[in-house]
Specification:
The chain is an all-alpha fold and 235 residues long. The chain contains 13 helices and no strands. The longest helix has 16 residues, at 43-58. It is elongated. The termini are far apart. The model is unreliable at 1-15 (pLDDT under 50).
């Protein structure tokens, strides 16, 4: 990314103007191609205050900020108070004021800033904590490892998958499901109809319950999955 290029050229990781200049200059052409509206941003009123916010208030390194702006250059135009700071404050509370977790979270999924806090993010947090029973610690571990889950649709993606795992076809308890998800957060990224259900059915056909299979059973390659099933079949 743009920060790595800067590090190779010996750009210092400082809070000063050198870091700001470096971030603006690196990969400018590609960023403009992805988001040409950045040309209309004021360096003084838009770009510099937001870089200062991420660097000095959030504590992002040059490399982390480079990744955020590389993936979401639009962030340079987002409202400081109603978007950037509001979400950072929200996740600081959610992550028990762990600065490193907050930085890692937004670096891995800066698109979180393009999601509405009240209508999109908070309902998902409420579902995981109040409907499923995630503790704050479980949720923090889960989201820092797989922040992209908050970009999934609650009604069309998250709820159907969680309901399937908890329903009669699989029969996990809520605590078993929480452990399953926290141990392998990528589980929710797989397609329910084409990946999860077929594999669960194969396990059932071989007399194997999901709770007795490795936590990686859904994410394994087809070859690895088939090999494990053949070696552990109860039939």
């Amino acid at each position: 990314g743009l920060a790595r290029a800067g590090k190779r050229r010996g750009v210092p990781d400082t809070n000063g103007d050198d870091a700001i200049h470096h971030i603006i200059q690196q990969r400018t052409k590609t960023m403009l191609l992805r988001f040409p509206n950045v040309l209309g941003f004021s360096v003084e009123n838009n770009i510099q205050p937001r870089i200062h916010f991420f660097r000095n208030e959030v504590g992002c390194s040059v490399e982390q900020l480079g990744k955020i702006l590389w993936r979401l250059p639009e962030a340079l135009g987002y409202s400081m108070e109603n978007n950037l700071r509001a979400k950072i404050d929200y996740f600081k509370i959610l992550f028990d004021n762990d600065e490193d977790d907050v930085k890692n979270f937004i670096t891995r999924n800066p698109n979180i800033f393009s999601n509405n806090l009240q209508r999109n993010i908070m309902p998902k947090i409420h579902y995981f904590t109040h409907e499923i029973g995630f503790t704050q610690k479980d949720l923090r571990t889960f989201l820092v490892e797989r922040p992209q889950v908050l970009s999934l649709s609650l009604d069309n993606n998250i709820v159907p998958k969680m309901s399937y795992y908890l329903g009669d076809q699989v029969g996990l308890t809520k605590q078993e499901l929480i452990n399953f998800i926290v141990d392998k957060p990528g589980q929710l990224s797989f397609n329910l109809e084409t990946r999860i259900k077929p594999r669960i059915q194969i396990l059932k056909d071989h007399g194997i319950h999901l709770r007795d299979a490795p936590v990686t059973i859904i994410s394994r390659s087809d070859k690895s999955f088939q090999k494990w099933v053949e070696e552990n079949s109860m039939n």
